[in-house]
Amino acid sequence: MKEQPTICLKKLAEFLECAFSPEEEVKGVVNDILRLCSFENLSNLEVNKNGKYLMANKAALFRRGEVGDWKNHLTAEMSETLDRITEEKFHSVGLKF
To answer: How far is the C-alpha of 82 from the C-alpha of 75, rounded, in Å?
Structure first.
């Protein structure tokens, strides 16, 4: 998704059965959506800087999504628990990790 966001957005739109029309693509709608949904845009919105949250601190809401960064946030025990839960939940559909 990070390497080819335009292609992924178009595939997602098709999956949701609301593909972009040729006119929308020419008008730049795909690029507008990518810009509006970008990490930089969302993390800099005023509400996300100064809004009130009932749960965690604001820094916990936005992560860059870098590969392997989970190691900086999860302990080995937390990782093992997450792996176990994932395997349990997806076992019935035949996915193996």
So the answer is: 11
Instruction: Please state which of the ranges 7-11, 46-50, 52-56, 92-96 shows the lowest mean pLDDT.
Output: 52-56
Question: CB within 8 A of 77, min separation 6: which ones?
Answer: none
Question: Residue written as tokens 């009932």?
Answer: 54
Q: In sequence order, which ranges of 28-75 are alpha helices (DSSP H)?
A: 29-36, 39-43, 46-50
d(CA 43, CA 24): 26
Show me where the domains of the chain are located: 1-64, 67-96
Tokens of 33: 């959506």
Are the C-beta atoms of residues 97 and 90 closer than 8 Å to each other? yes
Cα torsion angle, 47, 53, 57, 59, sign? negative
Q: Is the pLDDT of residue 21 over 90?
A: yes
Contact 33, 24 (CB under 8 A): no
pLDDT, average across residues 35-57:
77
